[in-house]
Amino acid sequence: MILEPCDIFFTRGDSLFAYLIRRATRKKNEAPTWAGHVGCVVAAGEGYDAVVVEALATVDQHPMREQYESAVVEIRVYRPLSLSDEQKAKILSFLISSVGERYGYLKIALHGLYWLTGCEWVLNFSFIKSRPICSYLVANAWAAAGLTFGMGLSKVPSPDDMMDWCVAHPEKYELIATYDQT
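Now predict its structure.
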């Protein structure tokens, strides 16, 4: 399967960090969280040869194979169906301009504090655009094109919220590939 620019990929890993992210971003009374990470394709390629941008220790651009070919991980790739060329250009420009930024570990801690306390106001401190985490990177790229994942521009969804949005809107997002190496 050829992955194309602006395709969104979601992962579910088996590491402790992946588990903690899924726990910290799960809302009260929500079904178990599937996705713990999200990234975006920026250059077309066959499967793992596609070039992606994602927030790791820094925002990194690399062929998908460098991160996932031998990892124990499940991946689901969704294709947006109705982006204009202008929207795609804005999304890709935002993603590529973010390469090299350092990861926002404090934002992960704020999500953990929210999960522990239920106090949503703590997340108000996490919307700062610098020091992205994965979901902030992709959500802000979409916001640069005037788009959201159903939460408005003032709130940033978790990877699982974003995937739930894609699943709930098959007229806008199509599941085009799955990779299961668990």
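The chain has one domain: 2-180.
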